[in-house]
Specification:
By secondary structure, the chain is α/β, with parallel strands linked by helices. The chain has nine helices and ten strands. Helices cover 39% and strands 15% of the residues.
Length: 276
C-alpha cells in the first residue's frame, strides 16, 4: 500500500522523511512554501542528498508537493496571475532537486469571469510554465465547487488538459472529500464514479488520491475535511476506495485534521483494511 500524510517542510527534507517513516508511511505530501503566502525555505543540497538516500533505501512511492493556496492562475487580476506564474516557475525549478515526483495545485477560481474563461486562463499558464525537460508531473486537483472554483467536475479538468500542449507532464489528484462534496456519490456508486472519471479523463491520468473523510453532506459544495471514518463518507466507503482494483496501487495521501500521532493511527488503521 502506498500511503502517507501531509507533513511540514519547515525543517527540511530529511526530517520529513524520518517523520514519514515514524508514522508508518512510504510517501508523503508537503507544501513547497508557506501555504497562505509566498515565502519558500532555502533548499540545502546536503539535506536533499541525504533525503534521496532515505527515499531510495526505504522504497518510497512518488511524493506529492502541494502548491500554496495563494496561487490563482485564473484570477481577473493580472498581477495575481503573474504571481501565480512566477511561483509556478520557481516551484518547478525547485522540484528538480527531487526529480520524478508530483506537483499538485488547485486549478483556481474564476472570480466571476465564468468557468470557460477560468479554464482557458489556467491552461494558458500551464502552457507557459511546463517544459519538455522537466521530470515533475503537475497534478490538477479535483475541487468541491465552492464559490467560483473551477475543477469541480471531471469535464472541467478534461477541458483544461485538452488545452495543454505537454499533456504528458500533467495528471490529476482526486480528493475524496472534494468530489463527494462536489456531487460525485462515491458512497453509493463508487464504481460508477470511477467509470465516469475513466470515460471523461482516463484513469491513466489519475496519479494520486487525497484520502479524506468529509464534514459535509453529499453535493454540499463545501470543503471541510474530516478524520477517516468520522464523516459522511464513513469507514466502509474508505475501505472500498483503498481496495478498489483500479485505485489500490495509486498513492494515498491523508489531509485529515490530525497531528502526527493521529496520522500514524490512521495509517495503521488503513493498512489493516488493505488487501494485498
Amino acid at each position: 500500500m502506498k500511503i502517507g500524510c501531509h507533513l511540514s517542510a519547515a525543517e527540511g527534507f530529511v526530517p520529513m522523511a524520518k517523520q514519514a517513516l515514524e508514522t508508518g508511511a512510504n510517501t508523503f505530501q508537503f507544501f513547497t512554501r508557506n501555504p497562505r503566502g509566498f515565502k519558500a525555505k532555502k533548499i540545502e543540497e546536503e539535506d536533499v542528498k541525504e533525503f534521496l538516500e532515505i527515499v531510495k533505501k526505504n522504497n518510497f512511492a512518488k511524493l506529492v508537493a502541494h502548491a500554496p493556496y495563494t496561487i490563482n492562475p485564473c484570477s481577473a487580476d493580472k498581477r495575481v496571475r503573474d504571481t501565480a506564474k512566477a511561483l509556478f516557475v520557481d516551484d518547478l525549478k525547485r522540484m528538480e532537486y527531487i526529480p520524478g515526483n508530483f506537483y499538485n495545485f488547485h486549478p483556481g477560481s474564476h472570480v466571476g469571469q465564468g468557468a470557460e474563461i477560468g479554464i482557458k486562463m489556467t491552461a494558458e499558464l500551464l502552457n507557459e510554465v511546463l517544459k519538455k525537460e522537466q521530470t515533475t508531473t503537475v497534478l490538477l486537483e479535483t475541487m468541491s465547487g465552492k464559490g467560483s472554483e473551477i475543477g469541480a467536475s471531471f469535464e472541467e479538468l478534461k477541458q483544461i488538459i485538452d488545452l495543454i500542449d505537454l499533456k504528458d507532464k500533467t495528471g490529476v489528484c482526486l480528493d475524496t472529500c472534494h468530489i463527494y462534496d462536489g456531487g460525485y456519490d462515491i458512497v453509493n456508486d463508487l464504481d460508477g464514479v470511477i467509470k465516469q472519471f475513466d470515460n471523461i479523463i482516463g484513469l491513466d491520468k489519475l496519479k494520486a488520491i487525497h484520502l479524506n473523510d468529509t464534514k459535509n453532506p453529499f453535493a454540499s459544495h463545501k470543503d471541510r475535511h474530516e478524520k477517516i471514518g468520522e464523516g459522511f463518507l464513513g469507514i466502509e466507503t474508505i475501505k472500498r476506495i483503498i481496495n478498489h482494483p483500479k485505485l489500490k496501487e495509486i498513492p494515498f495521501l491523508l489531509e485529515t485534521p490530525n497531528e502526527i500521532e493521529g496520522y500514524a493511527k490512521e495509517i495503521a488503521l488503513l493498512k489493516s483494511f488493505y488487501n494485498e
